[in-house]
Amino acid sequence: MKRSALIAGLLLLAACSRADPAAQYASAQKAFAAEDYAAARTSVLGALDSDGSNRDMQLLLARTQLKLGDGDGAQSTLTRLEEGGFTSAELVRMKAEAAILRGQARAALDLLGQDETAGAWRLRAAAHTALDNSPAALDALRRGLAADPRDYALVHDYARFLIAAQDYPAAAKAVETLRQLGPKRLDTLMTAGMLAAQLGQLPSAQESFTAAANAFPSRVEPLTALASLADMEGQVDAAQQIVARAAKIAPGHPEVIDLTVLLASEKGDWETVRKTLVGQEATLDPRSANGMSYAEALLRLGHPEHARALFARALLLSPQNPYARLMLAEAQLAVGDARTALRTVQPLSDSVLAGERELDLALRAAKAAKDPSAGVLQARLQSPDLKANQQRAGAGQAALVRQDWPAALTAFGQIPGHENDAEVLRRMALAALRSGQAAAALGFADRALELAPRNADNLHMAALVRLEQGTDRDQMLRLMKQASQLDPANRVIRADLARAVNAGS
Asked: What pTM was estimated for this model as a whole?
């Protein structure tokens, strides 16, 4: 065979083996429509390898990157489009969304300018949320809905906001709109399941998440939601099996990592927790679930000083978190600082809700510090009333979870000393509020606030009772703002602050 013929044959073979860009683009469009964004990205990138200047392909790539949360990639693609002479209002909105994903929320607001479309208002809401301005976010969502009440993405974001704010009746209406607009879409199924789970309707939630998992087998979100439900029902092994399925799809997905850590923590597999998170230590929020699981892993694996520092930061940032307080005391005792450990754990051990773990830790700290309270703690720990009170507290908490408000009130009301315990009173305030006992709810909430006036959760509950009842607007706003100032990272408080500011508007 002549050399020229051989070369020609090889070139022909290469041309035949190269994928058809039109076919790859069609495949990307199909995957995008099916909400399989990872596959869409792979296909459209393949198409662009052969037709790099194709504007439609570049736009699809940018949309896919935004769906995948890849702000940097989307920004790069959009820049290439602009450099190629393309401009449109949609491109500007896409640039704003990319900016939000890249942590540039203020730049996103500037880009949106005077755009009054529903899509622009949705992005403004996302930007304000990123800036911790929940009132502005809610206002933007409402203005967007006024512009187009049937914009699917906007209704979805509004429903998620309402669920976070625990405004379940309004959230249910938004979910119903999603069902009308896109009954089989992933976000519809996931949001419906999320609302059902929050309402304690676990079979309904499982049905929604299972439908999502079957319809979207390439997505991890339905699987992680199902794993969370299994964990809620105490089926830790089953939850781990579901997470393993999700990890085969996207091992680095944040929800997969979060659940891997959570389930390993529940099983006491601290080495897995440490290995999973050690590379993220510098960026871990110490008050987050992962942050505190990592700190506990360090404590259990023999690094109490390191753990103490992390738990101290967590409690400083989230002073109402009982787990952070308990674990900080554990770490303080482990390094030999018994007196400080006793002071740290006392708000928990003094509560009528204190269980064996809190009392045992306080007793060990008191004995090590030679504190006279050791005798009282020993007596409480050995008292036959302890088990009965724990059963009442457990029954009350279980009733709250399943939203059996009268049962919750009955159980908590049977705990001796509940009338002088802020934690119990706050829970009773919620149960009374949800069961329509306005006067009782206000009384419980205000008594809890009187007992612990600098507690963000108590401030929030006192404000929430007034917000739900539509009374004392000025005081309600003052209390809600104080709660948000004390616990600015609390998403529920932020969402309720937004409702409070916008109440009546």
From this structure: 0.83
